[in-house]
Amino acid sequence: MNEETLRQNLTHVRETLATAAASGGYAAPKLIAVTKTHPAEAILPLAGMGITDIGENRVQELRDKLPALEGKFRVHLIGRLQTNKVKYIIDDVCLIQSVDRLELAREINRLAAAHERRVPVLVQVSPAGEPQKGGVAPEDVRALLREMAPMEGLQVSGLMAVMPMTDDAAYLERLFRGMRALFEGLRQEALDGIRMEELSMGMSGDYTLAARCGATMVRVGSAIFGPRG
Ligand SMILES: *Cc1c(COP(=O)(O)O)cnc(C)c1O
Fold this sequence. Notes:
Layout: H1 3-24, E1 30-34, H2 40-43, E2 53-56, H3 59-69, E3 74-77, H4 86-89, E4 95-99, H5 102-114, E5 119-125, H6 141-148, E6 154-161, H7 169-189, E7 198-200, H8 207-212, E8 217-220, H9 222-225
Parallel strand pairs: 1-2, 1-8, 2-3, 3-4, 4-5, 5-6, 6-7
This protein binds pyridoxal-5'-phosphate.
């Protein structure tokens, strides 16, 4: 994709996000450019277009691309993460968005503590109960948060959700609003050691709705880069 098209796509996404968020009474969410499957040469121009944060979902792919990205971006790990792969990315990511089980939290905590770091993480929630996509059921979020709160190697900073594939906008809107309600409820509870600052939801197909329903971060790939081959 040429840079002009990339720039136009970005402008469109940003304007849409701003309008949608304002219509819901929220601030525009932070845009995480999802760069999975795209080579470093295709990603680097984004640095000159104001993109500071990118999302990758595969450990090996991220490792392969990192040197060529020249430290120009903060990297978010947004995909399913195997416990035995945490060690390969822990020093390179600014936020692990996809923590959905205690075993994974423990491994991040263990490695981060060994590196004298505190790694920001989000707890991934499955709003529609689709365990194959990862994510804990909404009713199990508190229990996981309580286990994670004392872990000194990580800092829970909020929630992340992946929505089901559906054309049913009313259903999607209920799920987005449910996530926002869960997020705000937890923020009010102010559990010790837990921060509720980020609500990461919305992808290319549904970021408008997500912004209107109070996402603080959206993860957008194909609406910026075009469809993946
Ligand atoms: C791929 C991916 C995205 C972005 O998907 P697009 O539809 O290309 O915007 C967002 N979140 C996660 C977890 C992903 O794996």
